[in-house]
Design goal:
Shape: globular
Order of helices and strands: EEEEEEEEEEEEEEEEEEE
Distance between the termini: 44 Å
Low-confidence stretches: 299-305
Structural class: mainly beta
Largest sheet: 8 strands, antiparallel, barrel
Strand order of the largest sheet: 1-2-3-4-6-8-9-10
Mean pLDDT: 87
Length: 305
């Protein structure tokens, strides 16, 4: 089965660093030439660094390479980023200051086999998504930090700018396991999910991925139900809450049909299942109700729960 780095179209990587707790996500579009769509770095100290190609001018020229050598992969990125020190929402077309140079150099070795095609879903579900052991470095300005952790790599299209709806959770646990879950598209339906333990990644279905919190602000808590399949019994209940009041990043851009606006939000999350804790990244994509350019929502601090 081809990996996400070997096929055309969108591919993304989400890394949970065991050393510092940093969360990194990289999204690219592959074709004759690989282009960088997005880089987010959620530092454990509360600083957020980001780049999104839809929010920069033509003067920015990031450098990205994603190479495959057998089963191993290497991802290298060099880009100017904007910096947020608190929860933030950004509107396409607004002036942003991209001044912090960020360099990422990651080597990836597979932990388990890719998720097989999930026949319950017309698009194959999470087919080809795979868990890797990632090592390397993240440099912000002149400060270089080593990273070591688990990374999900996939080519499902969820991270593509053309996706305008859905919720996704990726997380790694202290016992070395990890999970990937996409919310059901409608109530009563199921979404694709997968759970990695040791060298095995099991495709599962997601019957629930409920997120609570005020609209367009930090999502306060989450519950996810991963269910077994006909081929494999059992499942997992995963609980979660935001990791920091300083980190919630959202982008608002015009919808593809020109009739509204789409908000894509990212929040580092602490999670737990069956007494095992972990952390990861919660992504939420959805329409903003206003047909006009919506005013950017202030950061706000959610009530504790």
């Amino acid at each position: 089965m081809a990996t996400a780095a070997e096929v055309g179209g969108s591919a993304d990587l989400v890394l949970m660093d065991d050393v510092s707790g940093t969360v990194v996500t990289i999204a690219v579009t592959r074709g004759r030439r690989t282009s960088l769509d997005r880089v987010l770095v959620f530092m454990a100290d509360g600083v957020t660094l980001w780049y999104d190609r839809d929010f920069v001018t033509a003067s920015h020229h990031p450098d990205v390479s994603w190479t495959v050598d057998g089963r191993a992969q290497r991802v290298r990125v060099s880009v100017h980023t904007a910096q947020d020190l608190e929860p933030a929402e950004h509107l396409a077309g607004a002036d942003e200051e991209f001044r912090v140079p960020v360099t990422l150099d990651l080597s990836l070795g597979p932990i388990s086999l890719p998720v097989p095609r999930q026949r319950a879903f017309a698009d194959g579900g999470l087919a080809g998504s795979q868990v890797y052991r990632a090592t390397g470095s993240v440099a912000a300005g002149s400060v270089v930090a080593s990273v070591r952790g688990q990374a999900w790599v996939g080519a499902t299209g969820f991270a593509a700018s053309g996706n305008e709806g859905g919720t996704r959770l990726q997380a790694a646990f202290q016992d070395g396991s990890s999970m990937l879950a996409t919310a059901p598209p409608t109530p009563g339906d199921v979404g694709p999910g997968a759970f990695q333990e040791h060298t095995e990644t099991t495709p599962l279905t997601v019957s629930a991925l409920h997120v609570e919190g005020p609209p367009r602000r930090i999502p306060t808590r989450m519950i996810c139900q991963l269910d077994g399949t006909l081929q494999r019994e059992g499942g997992y209940t995963v609980l979660g809450g935001y990791r920091s009041l300083d980190q919630h990043l959202a982008f608002v851009r015009a919808s593809s049909d020109g009739q509204g606006w789409v908000r894509r939000a990212f929040t580092p999350y602490d999670v737990a299942r069956s007494g095992v804790t972990g952390f990861g990244l919660l992504e939420q994509v959805g329409r903003v109700s206003s047909p006009d350019a919506p005013p950017v929502v202030g950061t706000g601090i959610p009530e504790t729960f």
